[in-house]
Write a structure and sequence with these properties.
This protein has one domain (about 1-165, about 175-205). The chain has about 210 residues and is mainly α. The longest helix is centred in the last third of the chain and has 29 residues, at about 175-205. Helix content is about 80%, strand content about 0%. Helix 2 packs antiparallel against helix 6, helix 2 (about 25-35) packs across helix 8 and helix 2 (about 25-35) runs antiparallel to helix 9. The N and C termini lie far apart (about 40 Å).
């Protein structure tokens, strides 16, 4: 019963957290638009697998993180730098002249691209730690020995559900190959710049 309860909350947290445009779901959408749904789903699976690990770390080290707030603060500072770097990368890609080409196989492993997208998102662990601590304080999440596996398993399923949905929506939205690349890259650049500003404001003004 405890495992099922924690699985539900892990699923809900991942579904709600991933539904908002961010690094993981935009990576999945970008991979899908360029290389097809199969590659997009592989990227989604990689992203969800890393979120499983991050959620387990956040819940498993809840006591440590609650007494070492500087760890979470440093992760959030790292997130600002990562988002700024990603904004610059996608802006550079958007400004590069594009040639209309046929769809090519993904130049690498889409599963690993999904892993990387979730892995470099330094906000995932603080998100699951804060959310699980809030739920635990209200008696909704039962943090007992080994209970973190339920939360992590739910996060895995919830994250993959949202990322797969982004993959299918990206395929549906695909029209012009030349237009979609530039539009997606400009959008990603603006998104990550906005996320960097938002995270920076939370660190120093809230």
């Amino acid at each position: 019963m405890v495992w099922a309860n924690n699985f539900f909350w892990g699923w809900l947290l991942a579904f709600a957290g991933m539904a908002i445009p961010g690094l993981g779901n935009m990576t999945t959408a970008n991979v899908t638009m360029r290389y097809g749904v199969k590659a997009g789903l592989a990227s989604a699976l990689g992203g969800a697998a890393v979120i499983f690990i991050q959620a387990k770390i956040a819940v498993g080290f809840a006591n440590y993180l609650s007494t070492h707030g500087e760890v979470l603060t440093n992760l959030k500072k790292l997130a600002v730098l990562i988002f700024l770097a990603l904004s610059a990368v996608f802006l550079k890609e958007a400004l590069r002249p594009k040639k209309r080409e046929g769809r090519k196989p993904y130049p690498g492993t889409p599963f690993l691209s999904g892993c990387a997208a979730s892995g470099v998102n330094a906000l995932n662990i603080p998100f699951y730690f804060t959310a699980s601590a809030f739920l635990d304080s209200h008696g909704l999440l039962l943090l007992r020995p080994y209970s973190g596996w339920g939360v992590a398993s739910g996060a895995l399923v919830g994250a993959f559900s949202v990322l797969a949905l982004y993959a299918y929506l990206a395929r549906w939205a695909t029209q012009s190959a030349l237009l979609r690349d530039k539009t997606m890259n400009y959008f990603l650049s603006a998104l990550f710049f906005a996320l960097a500003l938002w995270q920076w404001a939370l660190l120093y003004f809230v």
